User: Fold Glutaminase from Dokdonia sinensis.
Amino acid sequence: MFDCQDVLNRTYQRVLAMENKGAVASYIPELAKVDPANFGVCITTKTGEQFHCGNSITPFSIQSIAKVLSLSLAISHQGEKMWERMDFEPSGSSFNSLVQLETENGIPRNPLINAGAIVVCDILCDLFENPKEELLNYVRKISGIKSISYNLEVAKSERLTGYRNYALLNFIKSFGNIKNDCDTVIDVYFHLCSLEMNCVELSKTFGFLANRGKQIITNTQVVKPSQAKRINAIMQTCGFYDEAGEFAFRVGLPGKSGVGGGMVAVLPDAYTIATWSPKLNKHGNSYRGMKFLEYFTDETQDTVF
Amino acid sequence: MFDCQDVLNRTYQRVLAMENKGAVASYIPELAKVDPANFGVCITTKTGEQFHCGNSITPFSIQSIAKVLSLSLAISHQGEKMWERMDFEPSGSSFNSLVQLETENGIPRNPLINAGAIVVCDILCDLFENPKEELLNYVRKISGIKSISYNLEVAKSERLTGYRNYALLNFIKSFGNIKNDCDTVIDVYFHLCSLEMNCVELSKTFGFLANRGKQIITNTQVVKPSQAKRINAIMQTCGFYDEAGEFAFRVGLPGKSGVGGGMVAVLPDAYTIATWSPKLNKHGNSYRGMKFLEYFTDETQDTVF
Amino acid sequence: MFDCQDVLNRTYQRVLAMENKGAVASYIPELAKVDPANFGVCITTKTGEQFHCGNSITPFSIQSIAKVLSLSLAISHQGEKMWERMDFEPSGSSFNSLVQLETENGIPRNPLINAGAIVVCDILCDLFENPKEELLNYVRKISGIKSISYNLEVAKSERLTGYRNYALLNFIKSFGNIKNDCDTVIDVYFHLCSLEMNCVELSKTFGFLANRGKQIITNTQVVKPSQAKRINAIMQTCGFYDEAGEFAFRVGLPGKSGVGGGMVAVLPDAYTIATWSPKLNKHGNSYRGMKFLEYFTDETQDTVF
Amino acid sequence: MFDCQDVLNRTYQRVLAMENKGAVASYIPELAKVDPANFGVCITTKTGEQFHCGNSITPFSIQSIAKVLSLSLAISHQGEKMWERMDFEPSGSSFNSLVQLETENGIPRNPLINAGAIVVCDILCDLFENPKEELLNYVRKISGIKSISYNLEVAKSERLTGYRNYALLNFIKSFGNIKNDCDTVIDVYFHLCSLEMNCVELSKTFGFLANRGKQIITNTQVVKPSQAKRINAIMQTCGFYDEAGEFAFRVGLPGKSGVGGGMVAVLPDAYTIATWSPKLNKHGNSYRGMKFLEYFTDETQDTVF
Assistant:
């Protein structure tokens, strides 16, 4: 195998030397005030080795990346049953999301777009009396990191400005595909989006997806191997909104991004890689994160394709 | 490695024993009159071994599967330049295709939907004086099979009923994204769709995508390794219209289907697998082909995820 | 002039003799439990004469017909300024309403679709400290009928099931086109929809639109003549959702319908005509109401065209 | 009655004194080369009096205005039967036209949008052996003007650049709603759009719509009174693409515009008014024509509302 730390360092320096393009997400103050110069990466192998570089231990808001974790929790309890309430197809342009809900009677296209993640939160409300606590405990358990927490300021800010998500939720409820009270569901959703981790923690948390569903180090089964395969498949086809194809094309790994500037990618049976840099390209994905993952996989020739 | 012929046989028998659901495509007589009982499979490894079963040497109309071959020819000549004229993102539901062309000014979402494949045909008309001949020669060359041909009856039938494709073509031309005469371009497109192969030939033809861009057996480089990776990535995210996610989810391999009932899937660095059974599910993909590939990969645990 | 009472009676009997097709709106219990056999009509001339027939003094929920009254109140205070926040173009199929809001940045297409009526309610919240009271007083004033009231049971039921309208409201707010608190605005909207009148009251209330903006009998100016003309124009092009063209085509008068089975139509400078019959056709307009107005205007040859 | 020539002159001068905003249609050379300073108006009363001003006898391309004439010819032969193949509802934004055809299975929303006018041309191909000749004879007959003709250069230019219309035609044919050969139908359509008249001729030609379906002067019945009413209703709700509401709102008369800068409006039982000025506003309607009709009807208080 290649010298992982060496390739990591060189790729990091290469991207660092480039102009830091894009814009930091600004729809809530907590995201807007983050220093755009931050740039961290961490690789965690399925045997538990970690290689990192840059601002890799600075916590950030993982935002939509957390949708993979709520999906994982729901799928581990409900299995195939959950697909009665959503699909696992790519969504095309974000523009189409509302049209799609209309033509498909409130069935979201996949669990990684907002509409689908909201239905996943509704499923968590069905399953648990205290869904927020259960979700947090789950994330702490699969990561083995007790200190992971919601950022309550972020959750509150999301709530105050999240009219579009609240519109989605009510629209889906009008089709009967939300079972719980809207305010309860949205509260879970906004807490989910407020989860904070650093790159080292994020890549470790996602380790089970590179390890056939088993937590790394302890090898505890978190989801079934077939479920891990399916989560990876969903990330591959649906993980990057309007840039899912771009990511498959340039990086060639399943992954997920968040508007906080985080990204995570998985090479099954090998490693996970987390990056963080707050400036986003026009599709809402981290500019440096995309570059890093593209250059890194070009050099290592690691790809699922 | 598992005993490939054995797993192939057992999976074949398992699917054969199930009810043969779905409906044969009937929009042209040449497809409608095919015997729905046909069912063939063939695996070709990157070292050239072949394992097959059932009606694996009966030729059929590969239809949209051929779009991967025209893409391959175009990409080998134009490289990244071709992405100025189309994108490589999944398209969402087929319903959205015209809306998407409208909102994105005539830029098709990817080269495997009809709109994109039509623009690829226009690129071939730019590149070659006799695009139909060049395309056929290319397919014969990369497959090493001289007898592969267009079915002129099929091409003619497509032409007589292909109003929707002709509408797409004219619509794209209205945005300036078709450079050649509409009748010339559509003629290439309908010939492309009329290519005929059997399962043994189809899996061999696609061998270069499991072999980092090199033709199997001769190891002649057909497309660059990075281009093979990208074609696989595009098949993964865009190869099955409304069922791209389903295929990634259940099969976990890049692939492409056609309305003639053919399917092809690729396990990079290992093998390609072609199936043929004419009855289609509601998404237009072969009912038995999907089942076969799902059960086969379940048993072998072969998946890119 | 024709003998109004005679034509009214004969047309009423003609429609009464036909099969009473369609279905009563059932999304809230208060509408579902109305006797579908109800059928009333009333004509009020601009000089104050009234001709009625059938269940013309039974009160019913005027529902969306009330949107003309909130529009009238808003336009009388804001004049042309209100068109900065909405348009006055027909909306095409209801299917497109969310898509349209998306492509036109939260600007509703006209004040008579739900999205537009919600923005009108937001304008009323801007204008008045107690918008519900002001609105009710306004309706009582222009009608000269003190007993007109909201049905609080209906308003409450609308609130409990109105997820789609709440989705619309939040969606518009996400574009910045709602200034007040969502709960305050929706409360006004659901009260607006709960207004109750009978046919005699309804045709009298709308008298100002047949009288160049002046209340009938008292001749008090309610809106400017040019505003009355514009409200009529908006009713003509936008008053019947998917059936605006049908109504113009078959009836030829500006008008508005509600899911409670009420309809009102205006012949400028002559009269208003209100009908009520709870069974709705597939476009959501009263089956008998449409028939009555078509046959009535056929016989009288009254049409703006 | 007001002094028609006087109001006409004063309104003409008022608009002439304003800045001549907008842009001349340039998609074909024949339209692009017209002098943008042209501005003519003509009123023809139902008794045959004519009042005109400015460039009122300079011929221009009436373009989409002609769709009212093909509709009239079709309706006079087919009556209600033609509504099996198209609707008469407003279309919302032009953006929605393709979506609408898709969701409504190739049934155009009304006969005045391109899709609908194309189906009308297909109906003319059903009705007549020589549809172009029949159509021209019909226009000459109802206008009483033998010299009206197609502009063959315009028809040819339309043909060479009309990819979008050809796309629409093929798309509708894919749903089975075009019965004749595509090339035959489009030829009729492009000739229809190439009709030339001046303002005096145009207002006279439309006279039957202000005269309950009877040609003015001769009083020959051209269409039934109920059909005239319906054509007016369709013009009112569908005559101005994205500005149908605007026109109803500001002018208050049924009418139709063309990209050549012509407009025609009808006050039933009174007069028709034709205007021509080539510069178009952003909705594709004549800038000066809209202003003239708005100011004219403001002053005369002529409105159907």
